[in-house]
Write the structure tokens for this entry.
Amino acid sequence: MTSPEESGHELLVALAGRLPDEVLWRLRDWLAAGAHEPLAAVLTRELLRHRLGLTDAERALLVASAGVWGASRRLLEAVLPLDGPVHSTAVFRSGPGDDGPAALDAAALSVLGVVRGHPGSVELRQAWRSGPAEQRVVVVHGGERRWVLTGTLQRVLRAHGDRTPCVEVLPAHGEPPAYHQAAIIGSAPLWTAARSPAEAVAAGR
């Protein structure tokens, strides 16, 4: 059975590139810290403030998380519907600008150390999102309690000076949202978990 935390994490992943970074990282931090009531209240208000619509599947995630944590039913019902798939116009590349840090700077090495030691993690990638100021985007595949790993990595990046850390912790399998597909295509791999002999044989079939 899916927990409210899992539903909340999946929804916040889906909102990457749609809610501002400065809002999204804070919501994810609250989720990781178990601050469910403020998360529920602020998330619904931010969706309304930015006039962001949700698909039926995303609305179900909202109800299964924020709805459980005490969000106003009136506000939940006021969130706009969204028909059809969500598209992304974000542009990513594997390296920063000429004056930016190297791919494996101190921040990336710190993230790497956390991801390698987190149960269930299978891959770490890094991309830079184009914009007025290039933004580092960390993508992790796998990991137990993905919302907790997200919060930990955000705090690591903030300790290295990133005010609005963008950490995307995805399931090990499945098709990611359009924003994350673009980030993965434009990213560079930083680490991949070693396969067991059985997995290596299966992959070679």
Summary: The first strand starts at residue 92 and ends at 93. The two ends are 33 Å apart (CA to CA). The domain at 92-203 is CATH 3.30.300 (GMP Synthetase; Chain A, domain 3).
